[in-house]
Design a protein that fits this description.
single chain, 300 residues, mainly alpha, MetI-like fold, 13 helices, elongated, BP-dependent_transpt_permease, MetI-like_sf, MetI-like, membrane, peptide transport
Length: 300
């Protein structure tokens, strides 16, 4: 006969085994989705390119060459040509990718931290804490997140950190609700009750037994939130509220390119194409992750 000490450990072991099996099946379903898997490889290449930007880009993003010509493939040493100030377009595209991904991943990390703290606290503690935190969440949900991001950037300034925090702080609401829903579903299960009866603290129960059950749904929402954050950063740049020049941003490059669409169409076409491909790739990865964790069609 198992002792009381062994019961939560055994339950946790069974839960861990089920979680491993669940993740294995999800990964198999994701790999079967060719479009999502190829998009994942493309996104991985983008991340590696962004990290290695100083070594991949032939010039610094602010370096100018007054003797260079605008047109791509015609200027010595500038594969994609230069902008009106003589700055290498290829280098600025690579560094612009770095800016976009840094802001997107940083904003999503900030959003996840806020969402997990609020969702776990509201769902596990309940009562007035739940009502208060969900009241704040409802107010934030009613306020347009993009307008809130504009206000925050205006207040904090146009540094890359300010843009990242503004997007992250304005986009945690949906994930906080998701975490709370998962906590309410899991916190009354037998293994959680067993851990609670053994004197485990609320923090331990939340982080060890409850939060892992929310990872799958959170991964799905995060996969869609990253391209949304990339789009938000570009949108702020189009409004003149993006990162401070001369730091390159695809949004600012697109904005500048619209003024010279007839004289130098590549100034608009190149960043806009790369921006669209990046958004599509991350969105298709999100679709694949969502389908991979969708078990509605499985036999129960």
């Amino acid at each position: 006969m198992a002792t009381l000490t062994e019961e939560p450990a055994a339950a946790a072991g069974v839960t861990a085994e089920r979680a491993r099996s669940h993740w294995s099946r999800a990964w198999a379903r994701f790999r079967a989705n060719r479009l999502a898997f190829v998009s994942l490889i493309f996104c991985a290449l983008l991340i590696v390119t962004a990290l290695a930007a100083p070594w991949i880009a032939p010039y610094h993003f602010s370096e100018t060459d007054p003797d260079a010509r605008l047109a791509p493939l015609l200027t010595d040493g500038h594969l994609l040509g230069t902008d009106l100030l003589g700055r290498d377009i290829f280098s600025r595209l690579v560094y612009g990718l770095r800016t976009a991904l840094f802001v997107a991943f940083g904003a999503e990390l900030a959003s996840l931290v806020v969402a997990i703290l609020i969702g776990l606290s509201a769902g596990y503690i309940g009562g007035r804490v739940d009502q208060g935190l969900m009241g704040i969440t409802d107010v934030m949900y009613a306020f347009p997140s993009y307008i809130f991001a504009i206000v925050l950037v205006t207040v904090m300034g146009r540094s890359i950190w300010a843009v990242m925090l503004a997007i992250g702080i304005s986009s945690w609401v949906t994930q906080a609700r998701l975490v709370r829903a998962q906590v309410l579903t899991v916190k009354e299960r037998e293994y959680v009750e067993a851990a609670r009866s053994m004197g485990a603290s609320g923090v331990t129960i939340s982080l060890r037994y409850i939060l892992p059950n929310a990872i799958g749904p959170l991964l799905v929402t995060t996969s869609f939130a990253i391209p949304a954050a990339i789009g938000a950063e570009a949108g702020l740049a189009l409004l003149g509220l993006g990162v401070q020049p001369p730091t390159p941003s695809w949004g600012s490059m697109i904005s500048e390119g619209t003024s010279y669409i007839l004289a130098a169409p590549h100034l608009l076409f190149l960043p806009a194409t790369l921006f669209a491909l990046t958004l599509l790739a991350f969105t298709w990865v999100g679709d694949g992750i969502r389908d991979a964790f969708d078990t509605s069609g499985e036999d129960r």
